């Protein structure tokens, strides 16, 4: 899958207000620690060179119980720790403010091995490709559907665990547009490394357009191949896991396929989304993502093709 238009993940190249706050704290930490390391290393070098053993030297003068010195080297580090502790506390509060009665803007669910995104305010449900509006104050609720996953887009700052039965909140205020890559960062099974997050930050206007098109219930197919594809989709086991708005397919085990044609990738970022790849994926998902939960359904190539035509034409 070609992700060349995505930014190289880099925590210092932040894309949210929260990530910026965390990185700035990190810089303060780094400068203080580096300064201290230089002072300690400098004094040590000075002492080693100036007070080294010379021929004819006897025992050096022994120091013991210098109260002033002891107070100095206790108080200075204590003040630094206190400062860093307070600064960290302030940043933690800014990044993770109290939730109160606030409702999430996006409900993110980690599944083996893909991500579901629900936008409760617009009713949009999608998978793997996240859209967020630039400049908005967002709260994401991170859930785990089966095992513990972890939602992590380096440019967004915090890593947030997706724990079954214990939703966590992640606050994001995107400060610039872009296409950012993330990754599940809690080992969750054989396809953990291919559980990608493809996050798009777009303008509020583009986001509204996207949400509107996603909320649309696709019209039923009229063309022969697509009609046959729908018949196969509804009669084979597809409906037991997937859902498509406006049809009797309502299962929530696997990705919602209502607007699969709008997605760039299949299989959580594994391959590009096109008719050919989708046909091959339907025939044998294990070929692309060994160990993923969608089995090889032993469909013929023409059956898989017709289903792919049906899915790619849902608009
Ligand atoms: Cu999901 Cu690792």
Indicate the topology.
Blueprint: H1 17-50, H2 67-95, E1 106-111, E2 114-119, E3 124-127, E4 129-133, E5 138-144, E6 149-152, E7 159-162, E8 168-172, E9 178-183, E10 196-202, H3 204-215, H4 224-235, E11 265-266, E12 271-272, H5 275-283, H6 301-312
Parallel strand pairs: 1-5, 4-10
Antiparallel strand pairs: 1-2, 2-3, 5-8, 6-7, 9-10, 11-12
Helix pairs in contact: 1-2, 4-6, 5-6
This protein binds dinuclear copper ion (CUA).
Helix fraction, binned, reads: 25-40%
Query: How does the helix and strand content classify structurally?
Result: alpha+beta
Instruction: Tell me the overall shape.
Output: elongated
- The N- and C-terminal alpha carbons lie at a distance of 23 Å
Largest sheet: 5 strands, mixed
**Annotation, overall tally of beta strands:** 12
List keywords for this structure.
binds dinuclear copper ion; three-stranded mixed beta sheet; single chain; 315 residues; 34% helix; alpha+beta; five-stranded mixed beta sheet; 6 helices; elongated; 12 strands
């Amino acid at each position: 899958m070609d992700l060349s238009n995505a930014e190289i993940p880099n925590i210092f190249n932040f894309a949210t207000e929260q990530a910026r706050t965390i990185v700035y704290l990190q810089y303060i930490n780094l400068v203080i620690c580096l300064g201290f390391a230089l002072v300690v290393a400098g004094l040590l070098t000075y002492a080693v060179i100036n007070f080294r053993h010379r021929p004819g030297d006897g025992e050096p003068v022994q120091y013991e119980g210098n109260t002033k010195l002891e107070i100095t080297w206790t108080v200075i580090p204590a003040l630094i720790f206190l400062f860093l502790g307070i600064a960290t506390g302030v940043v933690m509060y800014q990044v993770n403010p109290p939730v109160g009665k606030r409702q999430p803007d996006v409900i993110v669910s980690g599944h083996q091995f893909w991500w579901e995104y629900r936008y409760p305010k617009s009713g949009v449900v999608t998978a793997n490709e996240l859209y967020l509006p630039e400049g908005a104050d967002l709260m994401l609720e991170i859930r785990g559907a089966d095992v513990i996953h972890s939602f992590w887009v380096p440019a967004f700052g915090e890593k947030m665990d997706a724990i079954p039965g214990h939703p966590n909140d992640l606050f994001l205020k995107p400060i610039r547009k872009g296409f950012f890559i993330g990754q599940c960062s809690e080992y969750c099974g054989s396809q953990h490394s291919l559980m990608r997050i493809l996050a798009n930050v777009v303008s509020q206007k583009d986001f509204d357009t996207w949400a509107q098109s996603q909320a649309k219930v696709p019209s039923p197919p009229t063309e022969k191949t697509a009609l046959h594809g729908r018949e196969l989709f509804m009669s084979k086991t597809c409906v037991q896991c997937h859902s498509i708005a406006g049809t009797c397919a309502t299962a929530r085990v696997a990705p919602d396929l209502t607007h699969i044609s709008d997605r760039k990738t299949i299989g959580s970022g594994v391959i590009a989304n096109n008719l050919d790849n989708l046909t091959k994926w339907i025939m044998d998902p294990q070929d692309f993502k060994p160990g993923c939960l969608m089995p090889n359904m032993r469909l013929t190539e023409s059956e898989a093709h017709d289903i792919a035509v049906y899915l790619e034409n849902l608009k």
